Amino acid sequence: MKKLLCIAVLLVGVASVQAQKTQFGVKAGVDFATVKVKVAGTTVSASETGFFLGGFASIGVSEKFAVQPELLYVAISDSNFFSLPVLAKYTFAEKFSALAGPSFNYFSDAEEDKFKLNLDLGAMYDITENIDVNAKYSLGFGDVAVSGVFIGAGYKF
Length: 157
Prior knowledge:
Blueprint: H1 2-19, E1 22-39, E2 42-60, E3 65-76, E4 79-91, E5 96-107, E6 115-126, E7 131-140, E8 144-156
Antiparallel strand pairs: 1-2, 1-8, 2-3, 3-4, 4-5, 5-6, 6-7, 7-8
């Protein structure tokens, strides 16, 4: 009896995962960033405007919740890096979603300390089934921190 119950639960779980939607897409936009560098107890900061572009996958977990990993190339003046945000996406209204999660950054032009961690918080609005606009704030940590606002648009295939 226990085996039958376990098999039934497993089949229901697999069927529900299969029923959730996975979408792939591309996104691009502008970023307004502040680069802060701590050297010998002194913090130096500079504000820069740049751009980002890349791709994403939205992996449905339930009707209102998805995991959205992204791979972005971010160009901010002298600080070019690759960003891998892994965002929790919660749809709280028909076309509105909240985004939150860590982003793992690799600074290809840094001499040392190439890997950085940020915390991203944002929102997304679906204009159509395939087109969205999104905005997020990325908070950087460490001796060299890149924080800023990212505003863009996405296209789902």
